[in-house]
Amino acid sequence: MVRTILFDVDGVMLSEERYFDASALTVWEMLHNEKYLGLPGDEFTPSPEEETIRRVRNTVFSNDEVLRFLKARGTNSNWDMVFLSFSYQLIRLCQHLQEKHPEAAELLTGQINRAKLAQVADWAREAGDFAIDYKAFVADFGKGNAEKAELLLYLNQIASERCGVETRIFSRNSELWELCQQTFQEWYLGDDLIAGSIGRETFQKGKKGFLTDEIPIVEPAKLREILLELKAKGLTLGIGTGRPTIETHVPLKELGLLELFEANRVVTASHVLDAETAYPQFAPLSKPNPYSYVKGYFGLDKPDAEVLNQPLPLPNAEEILIVGDSLADLLAARKIGCRFAATLTGLSGKEARSTFEKEKADYILEDVSEILTIFS
Known about the structure:
The protein is α/β, with parallel strands linked by helices. Helices cover 46% and strands 6% of the residues. It is built from 17 helices and six strands. The chain starts with a strand and ends in an 11-residue tail after the last strand.
């Protein structure tokens, strides 16, 4: 008998569209802004109109082909998506620059920070003939079988194949990953809220952010009634999301939903990063790693050391239902040993049904509003 329901947020309660927009804009900025690589081919602005946002998203992610590929390979973190997309083009650029600047390849063997990017930018301006190829991403990564966090490490192999260098620099524990993550946060939170997330002002000012422009999947009043009915049935409600804390609390509070979840069971990417910092030997802990859901089940007051060393599957897993929109959520549920309800409101929409049927999801819902049918 289910006693606890743990919900993902993106693709379940809130649309992922703005997250994908911010991801594309981050890659676009790091390639074209003079403060990063400053490559020609597009004119960067920190305050693009909606028409420009749509064009950038379609270009950077090749009409979402890149996003669908990454989702199918179990990547659920927008920070990882940005890191993968930008790093891939950086490797291609260093390969292009090798003829005139052999040291460009060696640059890929050490930590890559703003100073190193500035050096590459100087070389690129001198060369002036590099062509960004977003479509090549899927073809190159499709040659291997890397999934989830292994995709980040696969960048090292691509660097070896393209530039002839041995490196291990491409991973989540790198200065470049942190730079990508912080630049994404600038786009999503904007100038006014960024300091509360990364401890500094925006490096490139002029970003208004997307936090106040969220798109609910189900009408908030209707979802509130459903959640209240679940609570009336005695069910405990929690969250396991890839969003940082501020990006989870603010929109759900504005929609009148946050208070319906137990505060002690709202686990976010901020908690994941804290755990990875304290226990790097367990990293990565983002989905499909079940950490966020296991932590949500036990509560934020349970020490991370105990959560990370908790044997899986859980002995009372039949009491837990996870509600998510992605393969990463399903894989996390499988490791826990609990039931999984898939919603067809993620990136792939109704096309995801065949994947969830193949993976034998316990329930498949058109959207989260159908969750009451499980308990009728």
